[in-house]
Amino acid sequence: AESPLLEAKAQVRYFEIAARSILNRTRPGMPFAWTINPYRGCEFACKYCYARYTHEFMALEDPADFENRIYAKAAAPVLLRRELRGIPRQAGIAIGTATDPYQPAERRYGRTRAILEVFAEERGRHLSITTKGDLVVRDIPVLREIARRNVLDVNLTITTLDAALARLLEPRAPRPDLRLAAVGRLAAAGIPVGVFANPVMP
User: How confident is the model over 118-134, as pLDDT tens digits?
Assistant: First the structure.
């Protein structure tokens, strides 16, 4: 919580935080063995987010801090290259389980892109990405490179197609139509892509 301030917007403040590791081990029974979250906190401010409690580990107990104080992890590529040496290639790695890897901070700090560039150098890895961010299409070239030599799937979460309801549930996330368009562009580029849908009735 004492990290140096990188930048601030009207509601959101951005910080950089040192990280001891970039890969996080999951509990048994999960469909992947490891997770990567390039950021702490998530600016999309989804009302149903289960990960808000993670800011409490930094003594930030106001639930709004999770969406208004965003921490970019430092030295992510260096940490990842080092840690991958000890991870079996068939072990599933999921990006974006506690924060969205394509939230607005990614436009400024590019931590997700830097991580993907590491995976583009790898072979035989099993990688998945989950996001609500249509910014994912920016990385189509590097995603295609990853998919050539690794097992990759990208999933866009689309909770509802009702734009007004989506704005209530996910106030700062891209509109549903933008996410659907991103799905189409990824598919057209030959990248394995799917939709995570938790239907919400108006």
Answer: 999 999 999 999 999 99
